[in-house]
Design brief:
Blueprint lengths: L7 H35 L7 E5 L7 E6 L9 E4 L1 H9 L10 H5 L3
Antiparallel strand pairs: 1-2, 1-3
Length: 108
């Protein structure tokens, strides 16, 4: 029932082959773990619930309120809380005409 060779030279050869195979498997595992870690990092965070669009310029004055994820907010936007969004809209800051944050906030 013994499936291993009886002599030392063939046992050493088998040991070497197994070690090389194990090294290859461990390398493949490490590569797969790196790919998996990169994929986890590549998932973007969810958009904020509300964003404030800022104007072009040094100070970046607020110009509109948007629902988070609205494409018209552009790159000059910063996340704000629901309370800040409500305050901005009720104080006269323009709500986006596409995403309608005023409707989402319950302000008509």
């Amino acid at each position: 029932m013994n499936d291993l060779p009886p002599d030392l030279p063939r046992l050493r050869t088998l040991e070497t082959w197994l070690q090389l195979t194990l090294d290859r498997v461990r390398t493949a595992i490490a590569t797969a773990e790196q790919v998996e870690a990169q994929q986890r990092r590549a998932v973007p965070p969810p958009p904020p619930d509300w964003v404030l669009q800022l104007s072009i310029g040094g100070e970046g004055q607020p110009i509109a309120v948007h629902v988070g994820g609205c494409g018209t907010a552009g790159k000059r936007a910063r996340p704000i809380s629901r309370d800040q969004a409500m305050r901005a809209v009720t104080e006269g800051l323009e709500p986006c005409g596409l995403c309608r944050p005023d409707t989402e906030l319950g302000i008509l």
